[in-house]
Amino acid sequence: MSRKYQGLIILNTKSLEGSVDELLTSISKELEAEGAKLEKITNLGRRQFAYNSRHLEAGHYVNYLFEGAADVVAKIQSRLKLNTHVHVQHFQRVA
Fold it and tell me: Which of 30, 31, 53, 87 has its CA 20 to 30 A from that of 22?
């Protein structure tokens, strides 16, 4: 059974060697590799944090809307933990 999910990912672009668009496409490929069918990617841009989070003052926010099986979020979270450019990731099911 396929369900819709929304994922907010905050990227650490402080030591990024390429462009942000290249990073977004690589993360999209990682999501698709775990079985997610991407519907929409919204680039929200760089925003300041209310307080420093792990020595960062700002992050690049990206919102992913995708569809997948019930276990796809757990697979994506474990895969993105290995990516050093992913600062925060939050997923929720969309009705």
Answer: 53
What gap in Å lies between CA 37 and CA 73, rounded to an integer?
12
The token duo for 92 is 């929720």
Q: Taking the complete model, does pTM exceed 0.90, yes or no? A: yes
- Compute how many other C-beta atoms are within 10 angstroms of the C-beta atom of residue 80: 18
CATH number of the domain at 27, please: 3.30.70.60
How far is it, in rounded angstroms, from Cα 38 to Cα 35?
A: 9
Cβ neighbours around 81 below 10 Å, total? 10
pLDDT tens-place string over residues 67-84: 999 999 999 999 999 999
The count of domains in the chain is: 1
**DSSP-assigned beta bridge partners for residue 10:** 61, 88
Specify which residues 65 forms β-bridges with: 6, 40
